[in-house]
Recover the amino acids of this structure.
């Protein structure tokens, strides 16, 4: 699990700017989706080409959140990166500049539909009523990457919890775009994984300033329970 360190000056800036650290004192489970990004073998298995050592450590927290949200009437969304030949053509500036030809072929092959690396990690608690969304860019909310926004809107969901890997790549990209599409966004600090503690903490610090609330899994679950109790009391 990552050791999270947010600079004191960042927290002070946030307190001065909005009067408190957390954006959301309550979360309505019925209007919330847990968005689990790229928890696939390519990133979670030590035998795969883009293995993230911290990714396996966040599995229990993601599963706890999924269970709590389902129990409270919310939605769980598994986001799966899928590449094909069209992806290479349409996103050539990324694949051709940021990777060697050998590395490009390895990653592209691992994330093709049907490849071993494409599979959801076997310890993830995916249930029959959960959603599966396929994306072909870092962000699942950027135009043309997936149908997640349309599906969330149709379901009346206005809040997304971002979990998965990498914190500072696909998760950060999705969180930024979701906020700018007017969703309420929470980055789950112990439900995201990066390559290093430094990259993880830096991303969460940036998110807190301008893009999202940052909470632990327990803080999210406490808010679900409080909202459910309030609804049961008829408040």
């Amino acid at each position: 699990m990552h050791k999270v360190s947010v600079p004191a000056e960042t927290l002070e800036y946030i307190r001065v700017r909005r009067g408190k650290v957390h954006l959301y004192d309550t979360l309505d489970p019925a209007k919330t989706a847990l968005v689990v990004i790229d928890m696939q073998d390519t990133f979670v298995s030590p035998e795969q080409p883009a293995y993230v050592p911290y990714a396996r450590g966040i599995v229990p927290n993601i599963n706890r959140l999924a269970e709590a949200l389902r129990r409270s009437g919310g939605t769980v969304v598994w986001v799966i990166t899928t590449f094909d030949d069209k992806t290479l053509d349409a996103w050539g500036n990324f694949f051709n500049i940021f990777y060697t030809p050998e590395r490009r072929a390895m990653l592209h092959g691992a994330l093709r539909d049907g490849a071993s690396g494409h599979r959801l990690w076997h310890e993830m608690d995916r249930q029959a009523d959960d959603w599966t969304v396929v994306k072909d860019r870092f962000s699942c909310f950027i135009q043309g990457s997936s149908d997640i926004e349309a599906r969330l809107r149709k379901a009346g969901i206005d809040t997304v919890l971002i979990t998965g890997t990498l914190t500072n790549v696909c998760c950060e990209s999705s969180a930024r775009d979701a906020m700018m599409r007017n969703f309420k966004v929470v980055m789950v600090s112990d439900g995201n994984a990066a390559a290093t503690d430094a990259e993880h903490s830096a991303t969460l610090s940036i998110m807190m300033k301008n893009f999202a609330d940052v909470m632990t899994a327990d803080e999210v679950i406490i808010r679900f329970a409080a909202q459910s109790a309030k609804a049961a009391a008829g408040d």
Summary: DSSP finds ten helices and six strands in the chain.
